[in-house]
């Protein structure tokens, strides 16, 4: 049996499909499974042990996209897939699912595109207080009867394997930065893909400075997307100024990490802090304590999907009638879901996560 899985677009969205990948492999142990993904999220599934092939496409637009998709559609048609599962539902993904010619094509009910599937699964349009992994899981009962069960964060964890050779490369980089095994490493991701999920820079400055001041053995690495590298450096400089003389080594910014390197970096941290962006969900594939900062999105929809025994904290401004929102226009106009989130609340949650982790028994992953 040949199975095609499709999930385009964002890093976090691809992470959310990994429990389903494992479940489909368990239901079809002898199947040949192929996954179609766009380039920037491809490392999430590149080393996934449950996949046989990963087809990487470019996030193109216009004529280049048409040319690429036409070539890919012909390739998919010639592969003779028996089953396609489209976890995305966007125009490009649904078009590729239809073009594959598979006799069974499972996808969400989407206006104007449902005809491209042979099995259409309802998906409410409103933003429900339900985790995105569970939304992806809704497709699985139509794939195999054995998968007609709830997704379980213990049994069905999100997954991203550490890429071969990355651990050694990262160890050398950390050594060059003066970070040793005696240091407690805190990784803070200070950027987001859109302004609706971006905590103010001055709030990050206070967070970094106060966390750094609380322990001589602490080292803080600030990570960001390429377009916000300069902002991360400014946050680092301002935090160092608050820390005072002799603490320049406490805060590090400006390092460029690939996605596999970021996964390895987070895996060696004492704590990861970040907004509801791709790196937060990459962090969920590790056992490292996590603190998520939520603005327009809800933890119930996108908190790290992993066993509840692992240390996970969430901070948000509760009871705002405008949350969650579609992130196209801030109705109040002041991004209050983030601007009203006090650094004190985040700092207290961070220290609480570190304390909880120090009291918790080591997991199998942390013992290796």
Tally of alpha and pi helices: 14
Radius of gyration: 21 Å
Ends apart, CA distance between termini: 36 Å
Q: How much β-strand is present in the residues?
A: 15-25%
Order of helices and strands: EHEHEHEHEEHHEHEHEHEHEHEHHH
Instruction: Using the coordinates above, name the CATH class of the largest domain.
Output: Alpha Beta
- Unreliable sequence segments: none
The amount of helix comes to: 25-40%
Q: Structural class, please? A: alpha/beta
What is the CATH superfamily of the largest domain? Answer: Glycogen Phosphorylase B
- Please name the CATH architecture of the largest domain: 3-Layer(aba) Sandwich
Mean pLDDT level: 93
Query: Shape from CA axes?
Result: globular
- Count of β-strands: 12
How does the major sheet shape up?
6 strands, parallel
Give, in spatial order, the strands making up the sheet with the most strands: 3-2-1-4-5-6
| CATH fold-level label of the largest domain | Rossmann fold
How many domain modules?
A: 2
